[in-house]
Amino acid sequence: MIVGQIRQTTKMLNINNVTRTKAYLDFYLRYPEIHWAFLGHLVSRNGGWNMTDLKGDLLSRLMSEKKQEEFFEFLERGNWLIFQDAFPQFLLYEESIRRGRSLFYLLPYLEISRYMEVIWNDFWLRGDSYTLAMAQVVNEQSYLEARMIQNPFYKEKVLHTLEFVLQDLLSFNQILFPSRNGAKAVLTGMTIHQFGSLHERIILGRRLYQLLFKDWRRHKKILNWCMSHTHSGSRKDYWPHIFNDVNEGVPGPLQIRRLKNCRLIKGSPKLYSPLLEYAWPNMKHRPAEPGDWFDDPNVVVYLKKNDEAIDGEITGDYCETLQNLELAVLAKKAIFI
């Protein structure tokens, strides 16, 4: 009965990026000891922004409609897979709290790795939020590795394409954590390189965790921002001075630069960043591929505490990214005229 209810609730919340992102935050607000829920919320926000970028002002001019659809399917499938693996764990924890006893013996019946059964039982006894969060970073990225990164279809259609290389060269693959300092918008985060490397993704997850939880003043500011800005998928959520979810521009190729020093040039329309609900329809997913990724006990090395100092200043890099992407769009126009 418990397994059936968890499956049903997870399916109901796993409709699209917006519903998933909200579910992560709602859960974290109920159970703030489960740190990965907040990290998952913010990474999922970024996933939604990446999805709508495909239909926004810049990337849509560099990619064919077919390629946009292939990239969206890649992003959406990954977002869906992680939620349908992570959220049942959260719901089982919630049920364990409700009943006052560990129910993690049920994890295998939810197709969750046996690695996480050990981790959750340890958390139930010791309450170590850091170890649980790092274990979940390892679990979700390892879970994704066989199903997405090593999948021949996604390798050919996405990971090995010119467009993916172009995004990496332009650094248009940053994870942003918005907040406010008084009236000023603040961005912290990290840039993803070598997305195809499991090790690099796990290290990135550890660094993002450090950004979120090492400095509690920063944590509170980011959390307050998330609670006061409902996720829509549009980058207008955090930078309404640059982006709009209404298209202010004219159809056709980009004619002139709009950005300089992270500000719109006077008289320029804002960059179009649509709401997710208008950019993409809900996608019907095939069932997750079966199998347990856990076959190497050495992954426990990632669970060791790490006090690496992370600055997280990314505003300048992100501004440069936007300007480089705009220049790439203009260069493509010049090449193909």
SSE blueprint:
Layout: H1 2-13, H2 17-30, H3 35-53, H4 65-99, H5 114-126, H6 129-149, H7 152-159, H8 162-169, E1 174-181, E2 184-191, H9 198-213, H10 216-228, E3 243-244, E4 259-260, E5 263-264, E6 271-272, H11 276-279, H12 315-336
Parallel strand pairs: 3-6
Antiparallel strand pairs: 1-2, 4-5
Helix pairs in contact: 1-4, 2-3, 2-4, 3-4, 4-6, 5-6, 6-9
Structure, briefly:
This protein is mostly helical. The chain has 12 helices and 6 strands.
Overall radius of gyration:
20 Å
Main beta sheet: 2 strands, antiparallel
Outline, from the CA principal axes?
Answer: globular
Strand content: 5-15%
Helix and strand pattern: HHHHHHHHEEHHEEEEHH
Given helix and strand content, the structural type is: mainly alpha
Number of helices: 12
β-strand number: 6
Low-pLDDT parts are none
Give the oligomeric state of the chains in this entry, treating copies of one chain as homo and distinct chains as hetero.
single chain
Relative helix content: 40-55%
Distance between the termini: 63 Å
Strand order of the largest sheet: 1-2
Mean model confidence by pLDDT: 90
